[in-house]
């Protein structure tokens, strides 16, 4: 019913093979025999979840699951008004079991590891992938090994990886170094690699597109805005919308719009320069540690998604990210980590630049929960006032400016 195929040379691989990239070096996609898939809107009634769309997922055993997906799509009218748009939605992926969208990829990826008989799972991570892998590894009863850039992982994410029993290694280097090392480790030791270069991870993440269309009454938004780090999610969501269109469930695919932090923006540079490939950045830096990546492994797929869909890519500064995070929090009650807020910051910038039309229906993906990175919150919000335990002191403090 499906196979793996190189996006460059189109060489095909059986789904039984443990393989992450083509022998030519190209990225792989999971390709289905769509003529065998017959889904109507009627078949897709009922509550949202990743496994509701099982007919479009490459798994034949019982899933390793913690009830992932089914995240809310909020209308954010106050944010929309402040930016000057009419219809803005936020798909809050921070509401997944471990607090990020990675769970959609891990429920599929870890299940695939079991299906293939793999004994250990591994990844490099800026934090969220490692938290999710630790949790789904524990759920599956399979050991997990995670490689993290030393000193650059938010505490909430590290806490998850540690408590759920992963072997946590702090690498003296950045994420790109850690990814290179874990790929080598997996090749040598036969561990199953669960970074987004693994096409099965992306299959799980494409359900973000399915849910957004489902939640909008089987319609795609005009534009999808999201943060880009290793560039897996933008390609996964694009694939999801394209599949829905091919199956006749929606009429159009949104303009895929990727946002990167100014200090880590190789995809934006390639889009601006109309380059066929990115130029890796050796020293990526941003407060949004989740997307502190200089050499995104899925960049070729991401450039294609952006160009084919008529989308774009833009940078935002750390200051713009922080103010968007605060806006989401106090204007809408939506708590997200810094990387996630870059989608709203980018939306505002692109509207100001006149790139996004005021009539567009826009969905922004907020990829991770506020609680992931509480030390950042303490560095940008005022400290609580410490006062005496008397009613006079409380009343004085309540009315103080
Ligand atoms: N937002 C958050 C909160 C993330 O954790 C990530 C990636 C992204 C956005 C970017 O997604 O890589 O698919 O373009 N985090 C990875 C990790 C790299 O290791 O947790 P992407």
Automatic annotation (TrEMBL):
Its EC number is 4.2.3.1. The modification N6-(pyridoxal phosphate)lysine is found at residue 102. Its cofactor is pyridoxal 5'-phosphate. It catalyses: O-phospho-L-homoserine + H2O = L-threonine + phosphate. It is an enzyme of class 4 (lyase). Keywords: Amino-acid biosynthesis, Lyase, Pyridoxal phosphate, Threonine biosynthesis. Pyridoxal 5'-phosphate binds at residues 128, 229-233, 367. GO terms for molecular function: L-serine ammonia-lyase activity; pyridoxal phosphate binding; threonine deaminase activity; threonine synthase activity. Pathway: Amino-acid biosynthesis; L-threonine biosynthesis; L-threonine from L-aspartate: step 5/5. One of its GO terms (biological process) is L-serine catabolic process. SUPFAM superfamilies: Tryptophan synthase beta subunit-like PLP-dependent enzymes. Residues 64-368 form the Tryptophan synthase beta chain-like PALP domain. Catalyzes the gamma-elimination of phosphate from L-phosphohomoserine and the beta-addition of water to produce L-threonine. PANTHER family: L-THREONINE DEHYDRATASE CATABOLIC TDCB, THREONINE DEHYDRATASE, MITOCHONDRIAL-RELATED. Belongs to the threonine synthase family. This is Threonine synthase. It comes from Candidatus Methanoperedens nitratireducens.
């Amino acid at each position: 019913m499906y196979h793996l195929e190189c996006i460059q040379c189109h060489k095909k691989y059986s789904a039984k093979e443990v393989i992450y990239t083509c022998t030519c070096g190209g990225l792989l996609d999971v390709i289905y025999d769509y003529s065998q898939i017959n889904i109507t809107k009627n078949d897709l009634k009922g509550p949202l979840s990743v496994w509701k769309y099982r007919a479009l997922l490459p798994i034949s055993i019982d899933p390793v699951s913690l009830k992932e997906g089914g995240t809310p799509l909020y209308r954010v009218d106050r944010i929309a008004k402040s930016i000057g748009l009419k219809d803005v939605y936020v798909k809050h992926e921070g509401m997944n079991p471990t607090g990020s969208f990675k769970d959609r990829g891990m429920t599929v990826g870890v299940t695939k590891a079991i299906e293939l008989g793999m004994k250990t799972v591994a990844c490099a991570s800026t934090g969220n992938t490692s938290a999710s892998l630790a949790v789904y590894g524990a759920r599956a009863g399979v050991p997990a090994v995670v490689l993290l850039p030393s000193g650059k992982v938010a505490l909430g994410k590290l806490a998850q990886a540690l408590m759920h029993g992963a072997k946590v290694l702090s690498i003296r280097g950045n994420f790109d170094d850690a990814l290179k090392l874990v790929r080598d480790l997996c090749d040598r030791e036969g561990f199953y690699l669960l970074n987004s270069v693994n096409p099965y991870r992306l299959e799980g993440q494409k359900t973000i597109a399915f849910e957004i269309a489902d939640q909008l009454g089987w319609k795609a938004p005009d534009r999808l805005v999201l943060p880009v780090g290793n560039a897996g999610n933008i390609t996964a969501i694009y694939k999801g919308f394209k599949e829905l269109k091919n199956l006749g469930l929606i009429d159009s695919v949104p303009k895929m719009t990727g946002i990167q932090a100014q200090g880590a923006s190789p995809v934006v540079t390639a889009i601006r320069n109309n380059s066929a490939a990115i130029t890796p950045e050796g020293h990526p830096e941003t407060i949004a540690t989740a997307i502190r990546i200089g050499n995104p492994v899925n960049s070729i797929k991401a450039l294609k998604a952006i160009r084919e869909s008529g989308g774009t890519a833009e940078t935002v500064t750390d200051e713009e990210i922080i103010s968007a995070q605060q806006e989401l929090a106090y204007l809408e009650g939506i708590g997200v980590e810094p990387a996630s807020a870059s989608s709203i910051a980018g939306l505002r910038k692109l509207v100001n630049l006149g790139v996004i039309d005021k009539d567009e229906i826009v969905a922004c993906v907020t990829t991770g929960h506020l609680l992931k990175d509480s030390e950042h919150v303490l560095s940008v919000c005022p400290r609580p006032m410490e006062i005496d335990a008397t009613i006079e002191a409380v009343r004085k403090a309540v009315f103080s400016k």
